[in-house]
Specification:
Number of strands of chain A: 0
Largest interface: A-B, 25 and 31 residues
Mean pLDDT of chain B: 87
Number of strands of chain B: 10
Radius of gyration of chain A: 18 Å
Mean pLDDT of chain A: 91
Order of helices and strands of chain A: HHHHHHHHHH
Strand content of chain B: 15-25%
Order of helices and strands of chain B: EEEHEEEHHHEHEEEHH
Helix content of chain A: over 70%
Shape of chain B: globular
Shape of chain A: globular
Largest sheet of chain A: none
CATH class of the domain at 8-79 and 151-248 in chain B: Alpha Beta
Oligomer: heterodimer
Chain lengths: 243, 265
């Protein structure tokens, strides 16, 4: 593993994104627009104080999952991954390079979404902004690591985008946004307690309300455990030799 | 820089992919300082053999060694330049950005990027995005990546596909220059006419080594007018030999026969 090669890889991934201004614009603007839409939908109720932070947790995860799964699928199919692995590049250099690049993008994305949610939509964030960005960055890392893993199980771009509903929608449905998690049937509640998105949303809601406690720390640890597991599985799917 | 021993060696190399045999027991030994043409029709196993040499291919049985180490070994990763058949470069980066990234991974400095841009005649396109380049230009970018760091072994899968005759001839001169400076080049092509540009030939057909000889020997032994016809003649002779052997052995054993110094293990 080499910090320099991680940084070069992240730099290369960011250069690729920079050459695609439409993607950059969509990544940065769409979360704010959707947060605005949600604020409007719930403008007659008080629910935005809860759903606003949940949206901030959702975007880095979903967007980075999609972007990473497609970008790494291209590397696998286009032969650039084979070429890199025939060079003195360690697998963690590749994975962490992607993780670094997309976490940086997610931080910018989150900053814009938070500014928009607070100044335009009137969301109040009582807790620590530092913690909010930490959780958003972890969310992005989680999306990146799951995306990397998903790309190994897809042969085409059509297949890889189908992993989005398969991996993300169930987590979204069980995360407490649709129905509070305490009101789920016991079996589903138990599952929901182990899903990373549930914890990301819980933690961000707590930060917004200014009620961070040991539960929040727990949530962050669970997300971190998922990230490590997904990165390990993801690195197993990078093979120097293939059949 | 000249390496005395064999640079690439294969012993009884067999590879199956998805249950189908792709390579069926190849053996050869390739020295430094030569351009070795790997020729054969598409589907004959050229790319699979090249992937085995670079260590990207799982080997079923037998062995491949490069510079005395098992192919794919860690110590070989900065000593083999590999150009895959599909241009393995980033479409959404410029030519220079592609080369700079790969050069950094190989821990080479910027002057090396300029050097390979010069060799592959890409100076005019260096700031353009790869997505806007023609197929031949993309191929040259991919070749430029393989040339980074002047590795002692170059494995080039169809490097001249889609190039105009002037550029093609220019690249073959580059290859000859590299060979003269001690590099071992394994260059595949399905265009038999390119055989004459090589120092040695490995002729592959249906996963078997049909012959390992020089272009001169190929033309002389077959008496054919063109390399294409010489290849056909070799196939026909092998076919006759096989049929003859089948008749003797009641068709139970297919025996391979190699004309002249056919690459026996």
């Amino acid at each position: 593993m080499s910090p320099a090669r991680i940084a070069y890889t992240a730099h290369r991934v960011l250069e690729q994104i920079r050459h695609d201004p439409r993607t950059v614009a969509l990544m940065l603007v769409v979360p704010s627009l959707l947060i605005g839409l949600v604020a409007w939908i719930f403008s007659e109720t008080g629910a935005f104080t809860h759903i606003g932070p949940a949206m901030i947790a959702l975007f880095p995860f979903v967007v980075m999952f999609l972007v990473t799964s497609i970008a790494t699928l291209r590397e696998r199919r286009g032969g650039t991954l084979e070429r890199l692995l025939a060079m003195p590049l360690a697998k963690p250099d590749f994975i962490l390079g992607y993780a670094l690049a997309f976490t940086l993008v997610a931080i910018v994305q989150t900053a814009l979404a938070v500014v928009f949610a607070v100044w335009v939509c009137g969301l109040e964030i009582a807790g620590s902004l530092g913690l909010l960005f930490t959780i958003a960055a972890l969310d992005a890392l989680l999306g990146t690591s799951l995306g990397l893993m998903a790309s190994a199980f897809a042969r085409t771009e059509f297949q890889v985008v189908q992993f989005m509903p398969a991996i993300i929608l169930p987590q979204f449905l069980l995360s407490g946004i649709v129905l509070p998690r305490q009101s789920l049937p016991p079996a589903l509640e138990a599952i929901s307690d182990w899903l990373p998105l549930s914890h990301a949303i819980d933690a961000l809601v707590a930060v917004a309300a200014g009620t961070e406690d040991s539960q929040t720390t727990n949530s962050i640890l669970i997300i971190a455990a998922w990230i490590i597991a997904a990165l390990l599985v993801g690195s197993l799917t990078l093979r120097r030799r293939t059949a | 820089m000249m390496n005395k021993g064999p640079v690439i060696e294969a012993h009884d190399l067999a590879i199956r992919r998805g249950g189908t045999p792709v390579l069926r027991g190849l053996g050869f030994s390739l020295p430094a300082g030569r351009t070795i043409g790997l020729l054969g029709p598409s589907g004959s196993g050229k790319s699979t053999l090249m992937r085995a040499v670079t260590g990207s291919q799982v080997i079923t049985s037998g062995s491949v060694t490069v510079l005395g180490q098992p192919a794919g070994g860690k110590g070989l990763r900065h000593r083999i330049g590999y150009m895959t058949q599909a241009a393995s470069i980033y479409e959404d980066l410029s030519v220079r950005q592609n080369l700079t990234y790969f050069a950094r991974i190989l821990r080479l400095d910027a002057s090396e990027v300029e050097r390979v841009i010069g060799i592959t005649d890409l100076s005019g396109q260096s700031e353009r995005l790869v997505s806007g380049l023609s197929g031949g230009q993309r191929n040259r970018v991919s070749l430029a990546v393989a040339l980074l760091g002047a590795p002692p072994v170059l494995v080039l899968d169809e490097p001249t596909v889609g190039l105009d005759p002037v550029l093609r001839s220019q690249l073959w001169r580059v290859f000859a220059g590299l060979a003269a400076s001690g590099t071992c080049l394994l260059v595949s092509s399905h265009v038999m006419e390119e055989a004459m540009r090589c120092d040695d030939l490995l002729l592959l057909r249906e996963g078997r080594l049909l012959a390992h000889l020089s272009p001169g020997e190929l033309m002389e032994s077959t008496g054919a007018a063109t390399p294409e016809l010489a290849f056909l003649e070799l196939i026909a002779r092998q076919q006759d030999a096989t049929d003859g052997a089948s008749a003797v052995h009641g068709g139970r054993h297919r025996r391979r026969q190699h004309p002249k110094r056919g690459g026996r293990p």
